[in-house]
Hints:
The chain has 7 helices and 4 strands; from the N terminus they run H-E-H-E-E-H-E-H-H-H-H. By secondary structure, it is mainly alpha-helical. The strands form 2 sheets. It has a two-stranded antiparallel sheet. A two-stranded antiparallel sheet has the order 2-3. A hairpin with a 2-residue loop joins strand 2 and strand 3 (65-66). The protein is flat, with a radius of gyration of 20 Å.
Amino acid sequence: MKATILITLLLLIMLTGCTHKPFQPPRDEYEMWLTPDVSRIDVFKSLLECGMTDPLDGNVELNGQFDLNGYVAAKRCMESLGYVNVHSPICSESSTLPACQPGAKIPKPSVERRLNSKYCQSARDMISEEKYQQCLMNLASKYERVTEKDCAYWHRDLVEECQP
Length: 164
């Protein structure tokens, strides 16, 4: 019994060391970037323009697979815009990723890249009336009280970060 309690206690102590705030979910990617007087929407737009697939999870995909080098290149693009990452440095001295090498090609922010991103494509795909009604039905099956506002973010208006 004492061994079980000791093991449990040790596991809890070790797990709390894995995060800056114990027992908190990890931050979304857009929350990792600090710049004074910049709105959440502006951070979303910048992440998408720099090549992030989704400003929430921070993925960068290449042929449907997570692309670590592309992820680092997108982060360096964000730095070039004046953003500061709370988990700096992005590249360590021992990094062998091409995006961390001197003279690496770092993407320039692109409105076209943002508007054509998987994230914005999903937003556009979900605007149809059929998808909107499906959203309402799905929510109604899970929750007692559902309003049009519950599905409006994706379905009625294209999200702000996906507008030109």
